[in-house]
Each structure stands twice: as structure tokens, then as C-alpha cells.
Amino acid sequence: MKRLLIIWMLAHPLQHYQCSAVIFKMTNAVCESYNKTWVEFGLCRLRAVSRNKVCLNVDANLLYPVHDVIVKARLLKRANGYKPWLYSVSFDGCQFIRRRNNALIRIVWELFKEYSTINHTCPYVGLQQVKNFYLRSEKLPTPIPTGEYLLMIDWVFNKKPQAATNVYFTFVEDLKDS
Ligand SMILES: *[C@@H]1O[C@H](CO)[C@@H](O)[C@H](O)[C@H]1NC(C)=O
Ligand SMILES: *[C@@H]1O[C@H](CO)[C@@H](O)[C@H](O)[C@H]1NC(C)=O
């Protein structure tokens, strides 16, 4: 019994330490408008709060209402340049906000929703913001392999790409665990 307790006590701080050893942070963010009469980015910036916490702030001004959004997302992983990795999805943004019916998109949404003003239904117009968003590994259902990633999102309004937001991030697995 006593031995078990000691093992438990040893294991717990260790687990805690292992969790915090994961690095999951953004390294670059690029926002681009393809149609400046419709979408204007006022801000698209990362800010390092501490060594392993980097916050993203985006201000996007929609100068005309958006009633119809297709979100095209690709996840790439670096290996001699960025190569497609695992997922490529395309979904109706207006419908997703209503139904939240795709597992992968829900993960991204869970990471993101508290930090954004886009948690309402269509139409979207005026200033859309992401405020002090940062990545939290505890929100991932499963770790991903150590590496450098790029999440590319094309925002398609009225059937044409109008803007792109590309976010680069690093994930470093808990190596002591494997
Ligand atoms: C650019 O945005 C304006 C305003 O919404 C729109 O009328 C126009 O069709 C868009 N241009 C393209 C190429 O989609
Ligand atoms: C959207 O986010 C705001 C601020 O975090 C929150 O107060 C509001 O309840 C959210 N709305 C929905 C529909 O989730």
C-alpha cells in the first residue's frame, strides 16, 4: 500500500511535467486579401507572451455583408518544403456555425471559438476579430507528430476566393512518453 502511494506520488508530478513539456505554438501568420473592396486586414500579427505561448491577433474588416462562405482548409507538414498532411477540408461556414457537424472542424473550432467574434450565424459584416488566440495542446484529442505545420485557409465568398489566412505552427511531442 505504502509502495503504491509512493509510485503514485512519483508518477503524478512527472505526468504533470510531461504535459507541460509539449510545445504547441504558432510561428508565423500571414493574411492576404484577394479583393480589397471586400476584405481588409487591419491586423494579422503574432505576439510572443512567453517562450512557449504566442498569441494571434487578427482584425478583418468586411466591407460588404457575407451571406455565403466556403472555408477551404489544408493542413501541411514540413518535409523538404510543406507537403499536404492528413487533411484537406472544404465546408460551408454558414452551415457549420449552425450545425457544427464535422469532427476535425470541431477540433479547430474548440481551440478557437473563445477568441473570436465569428461565433454567430451568417451574415458577417464589418470588423471580425481574433483576439489573443493561442494553441493549447490539452484541447487536442490526440497528440500529433513532432514537426512544423502550416494551416492554410482560403475564404470563399460568392464562389470566389476573397482572402487567405495561413498560420504556421510547431508541435513538439512529449518525448519522454514514447
Ligand atoms: C470583390 O468584392 C466586391 C464587393 O463585394 C464584389 O462586388 C466583387 O464581385 C468581388 N470581386 C471578385 C473578383 O469576386
Ligand atoms: C460568442 O462569444 C461571446 C464572447 O466569447 C459569448 O459571450 C457568446 O455567448 C458567444 N455566442 C455564441 C452564439 O456562442
UniProtKB/TrEMBL annotation:
What are the boundaries of the signal sequence?
A: 1-21
Among the Pfam families in the record, one is DUF1091
Q: Which gene encodes it?
A: Dyak\GE23819
Sorted UniProt keywords: Signal
Designated name of the protein? MD-2-related lipid-recognition domain-containing protein
